[in-house]
């Protein structure tokens, strides 16, 4: 399948899809901000509330852990950074998160399941996009925001997608598209 066609379809879907109904999370991270413990997104080290609220951005810091793990796993992150598939994934997730008000880490489990259901066709048909999604989920699991059961549900949703029978159980749409 032509990646540009999937990219165009996914971009269109990201900008035109309606909100996904939110489900309550069973996470215990609903404490007031001043009572919560925050962790650095790259190092995983605890942060003070002042560090979290400050204007200092750590987005340009080098991730030494990823740099040492990438060669061992055979992943070439240097080519992925310039890949438009990664940019597409970021656009899809950001659009989804904005429309569905994914605001705190307690929202991540239901958001990941809903994202998998919404984009199951694109993720199933486009391996690089699927790999971005899986790395995203692994990163959230690594920081304790996402559990293994949710990752398994998301992977099962994508794995069980069948192009010959595109059924949406939530909408009770049992039409076969051929």
UniProtKB/TrEMBL annotation:
Residues 29-151 form the Polycomb protein VEFS-Box domain. Pfam families: VEFS-Box. Residues 1-16 have a biased composition (Basic and acidic residues). GO terms for cellular component: nucleus. Residues 1-31 are annotated as: Disordered. Keywords: Metal-binding, Transcription, Transcription regulation, Zinc, Zinc-finger. It comes from the Eukaryota. Residues 21-31 have a biased composition (Basic residues). InterPro entries: Polycomb_protein_VEFS-Box. The keyword Metal-binding applies. One of its GO terms (molecular function) is zinc ion binding. Belongs to the VEFS (VRN2-EMF2-FIS2-SU(Z)12) family. This is Polycomb protein VEFS-Box domain-containing protein. It comes from Capsella rubella.
């Amino acid at each position: 399948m032509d990646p540009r066609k999937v990219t165009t379809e996914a971009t269109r879907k990201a900008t035109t899809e309606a909100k996904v109904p939110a489900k309550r999370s069973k996470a215990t991270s609903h404490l007031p901000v001043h009572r919560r413990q925050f962790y650095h997104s790259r190092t995983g080290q605890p942060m003070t509330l002042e560090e979290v609220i400050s204007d200092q951005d750590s987005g340009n810091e080098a991730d030494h852990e990823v740099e040492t793990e990438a060669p061992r796993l055979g992943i070439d992150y240097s080519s992925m950074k310039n890949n438009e598939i990664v940019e597409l994934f970021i656009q899809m997730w950001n659009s989804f998160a904005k429309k569905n008000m994914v605001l705190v880490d307690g929202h991540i489990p239901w958001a990941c399941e809903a994202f998998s259901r919404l984009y199951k066709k694109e993720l199933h048909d486009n391996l690089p996009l699927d790999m971005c999604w899986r790395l995203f989920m692994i990163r959230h699991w690594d920081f304790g925001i996402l559990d293994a059961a949710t990752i398994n549900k998301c992977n099962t949703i994508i794995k069980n997608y069948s192009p010959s029978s595109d059924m949406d159980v939530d909408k009770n749409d049992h039409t076969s598209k051929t």
